[in-house]
User: Which sequence fits this backbone?
């Protein structure tokens, strides 16, 4: 579904991704693991084709999605036409709007209104906490609830392929489990998921496969089970 080959990415003159290759098959949940500064968010931003000033610049290699070259594609087309949704680091929800208004904004490009109303019901059943708070202003939600909202929003934009940037960040262990269980359910119901995580323990518990990134290189890959059993992984990344 997604294929990245020999991708080199720079900010200004500084190269931060040095020729990474990875792929995500339809129906999979794949994790991209690595420490601070490894290049995980840069990888996601490269896929989303985010514009300047934040934009990482691709200098070589390719990103294809269902066989289509994504490099010349504008970011809103990545979302609206290709159905790729990002749950960004730090959530970036609209604090002065309600839960429902935030979800509604995500549907602006959709024309399948029958499916849209089914999707609202689905989000509210996956995240009952959001259902209880649908008319609450988002700035008054807890961090965990905001993370759920950010995830629900990617679902509401009709994404068939969902990218998440460190969804576990700042969540208590129980809430983390709750969120990953829902991600797994979203995955089982047909969405493909690519999740960036520093928390290798939780990601390897739920993902099918994983890649480990260090300083702009992919240094390991394998099934979640194999990765969880690798000695180097245990020492450096698994508690
Ligand atoms: N806008 C930018 N301009 C210049 N350098 C940047 C920019 N954004 C990121 N970098 C650098 O690129 C490298 C990779 O950053 P990136 O944000 O992709 O790491 P990460 O793996 O997501 O880390 P973290 O787990 O801390 O979020 C880092 O060295 C970072 O300093
Ligand atoms: Mg990051």
Assistant:
């Amino acid at each position: 579904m997604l294929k990245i080959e020999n991708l080199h990415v720079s900010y200004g003159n500084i190269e931060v991704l040095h020729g990474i290759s990875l792929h995500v098959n339809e129906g999979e949940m794949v994790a991209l693991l690595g420490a601070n500064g490894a290049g995980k968010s840069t990888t996601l931003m490269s896929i989303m084709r985010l514009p300047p000033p934040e934009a990482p610049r691709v200098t070589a290699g390719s990103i294809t999605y269902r066989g289509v070259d994504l490099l010349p594609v504008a970011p809103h087309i990545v979302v609206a036409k290709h159905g790729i949704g990002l749950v960004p680091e730090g959530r970036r929800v609209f604090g002065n709007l309600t839960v429902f208004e935030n979800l509604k904004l995500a549907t602006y490009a959709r024309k399948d209104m029958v499916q849209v109303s089914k999707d609202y019901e689905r989000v509210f059943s996956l995240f009952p906490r959001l259902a209880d708070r649908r008319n609450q202003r988002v700035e008054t939600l807890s961090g965990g609830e905001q993370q759920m909202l950010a995830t629900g929003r990617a679902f509401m934009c009709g994404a068939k392929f969902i990218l998440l940037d460190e969804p576990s960040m700042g969540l208590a262990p129980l809430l983390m489990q709750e969120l990953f269980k829902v991600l797994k359910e979203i995955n089982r119901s047909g969405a493909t998921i690519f999740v960036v995580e520093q928390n290798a323990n939780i990601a390897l518990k739920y993902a099918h496969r994983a890649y480990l990134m260090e300083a702009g290189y992919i240094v390991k890959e394998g099934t979640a089970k194999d990765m969880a059993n690798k000695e180097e992984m245990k020492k450096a990344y698994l508690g």
